[in-house]
Design a protein that fits this description.
alpha+beta, methionine biosynthesis, Kinase-like_dom_sf, 399 residues, single chain, binds ligand LNRAV4D5, globular, binds adenosine-5'-diphosphate, 51% helix
Length: 399
């Protein structure tokens, strides 16, 4: 029988499959006579993920462990273990508002930087499924609802100011924010060591670095990210942080959670959909482009319902206030989406959607389109009046 565990006091050590099995036994996560097997399945940039299965019953759980460094780089990049606690707490906080879209936390062990999670292996990581040409009819509506509910209910629109500020302190996440500040908002816009630029893109990238207008707009977006403590964000909402099937959607891996601008999560998700659109053959593009529109529609529709139903802000009834808030969220969303696209093309953490394209001519062409769209989103974010003008830009770029 699985139990809910919360342990503090052990000394930190890195797990391996044997130690992970031993922990599952110590925590009594399975029944006494279980025969356990374990595989490390982590494919992310930062952590270990162990899947432990009772081979007789097929019952399984996930043990995720933070390492004291960024796995993608190695021990030369130390990283706080506190991120495991932040991740578990963010899952619990967001789970209050969208329980069907957030994985269940079965336990935590702060000293080992461990989170025990329900096993979602019956689902597919959205990035992988999309790369394989799948379409997920519920993805946009579910993510729109997830965004609206988690962002609205953790904001000043829904919370007493004391409760909100308590959460701001609880979710202070400086080291993980610094990664985003560097890898999303700074390094790709300078000649930084962390960048990874294909030679055929060098001249375009140099033009990007030399464009003072773009730099000014990215500086403003970075400042917004640094200072606008709107709501408890997921903080890294790309398609690799979402499990999907035709029926279900689950958002996982919120270790970058912190109080930031509402448009950041929306922008990262939309950016990753845009990159996927660019990689698809003509007949497969439109379905996914429509998902961008549906995400925004689902987000705004639900956000407006919550605004009318549950806002505690004295000003919420003032005509046009909500419209103006959503207009600002849209322009932030588009600017952040532009930065996310650019960093995924030339920065440290690139995406399989683009990297797995074997035909180098095709890959370079798509990367150029992505850089162009990213820059246009950043520069024109205040001018796009609707999500349709954005999707039309994407449609036009791949014609
Ligand atoms: N609850 C889960 N159930 C099943 N597999 C999971 C679960 N959580 C993570 N994984 C697997 O582990 C991989 C890495 O997990 P992730 O949380 O993204 O780690 P990181 O923080 O290192 O990016 C995921 O892509 C997924 O394949
Ligand atoms: C050195 S961290 C790089 C990159 O990795 C994170 O993604 P994930 O944990 O899902 O692999 C995040 O996007 C960071 O920017």
């Amino acid at each position: 029988m699985k139990r809910v565990v919360k342990v503090v006091g052990k000394k930190y050590e890195e797990l391996n499959v044997e130690k992970a099995i031993q922990l599952a036994i110590d925590y009594q996560l399975f029944s006494e006579h279980s025969e356990l097997s374990c595989t490390e399945i982590g494919d992310g940039n930062l952590n270990y993920v162990f899947r432990i299965t009772d081979i007789n019953t097929d019952e399984s759980i996930i043990i995720k462990q933070a390492l004291p460094y960024a796995k993608v780089v190695g021990e030369s990049w130390p990283l706080t273990l506190k991120r495991a606690k932040i991740e578990a707490e963010a899952l619990k906080e967001h789970g209050k508002y969208v329980p069907k879209i957030v994985p269940k936390v079965l336990g935590t062990d702060t000293s080992l930087a461990i989170t025990i999670l329900e096993d979602l292996s019956h689902l597919t990581v959205a990035r992988e499924g999309l790369i394989n040409g799948e379409n997920y009819p519920k993805l946009a509506a579910d993510i729109g609802e997830y965004l609206a509910k988690t962002l609205f209910y953790t904001s000043d629109f829904a919370l007493h100011p004391f409760d909100k500020k308590k959460l701001v302190v609880q979710f202070s996440n400086p080291e993980l924010c610094k990664i985003t500040e560097d890898l999303v908002f700074t390094d790709p816009f300078f000649d930084s060591e962390t960048n990874n630029i294909e030679p055929e893109l060098q001249s375009i990238v140099e033009a990007l670095w030399a464009n003072k207008k773009t730099k000014l707009e990215v500086a403003k977006l970075k400042r917004t990210f640094l200072t606008k403590a709107d709501a408890l964000l997921h903080g890294d909402l790309h398609t690799g942080s979402i499990f999907v099937s035709q029926k279900e959607t689950k958002v996982f891996d919120p270790e970058f959670a912190f109080y930031g601008p509402i448009g950041f999560d929306i922008g990262q998700f939309i950016a990753n959909l845009i990159m996927q659109v660019l990689t698809r053959e003509r007949e497969q593009r439109e379905l996914l482009t429509l998902q961008i529109e549906q995400t925004w529609l689902a987000f705004t529709t639900t956000f407006s319902e919550l605004w009318k139903k549950d806002s505690v802000d004295n000003y919420s009834y003032i005509e046009d206030y909500e419209v103006e808030v959503l207009r600002e969220v849209l322009s932030d969303t588009l600017g952040f989406a532009g930065c996310e696209i650019i960093r995924r093309v030339i920065g440290l953490a690139q995406v399989k959607d683009l990297e797995s394209i074997q035909d180098s001519e095709k890959r370079i062409k798509i990367k150029k389109q992505a850089l162009e769209i990213g820059e246009l989103l950043i520069l024109n974010r205040l001018k796009f009046g609707s999500i349709h003008s954005v999707t039309n830009l994407v449609r036009g770029a791949v014609e």
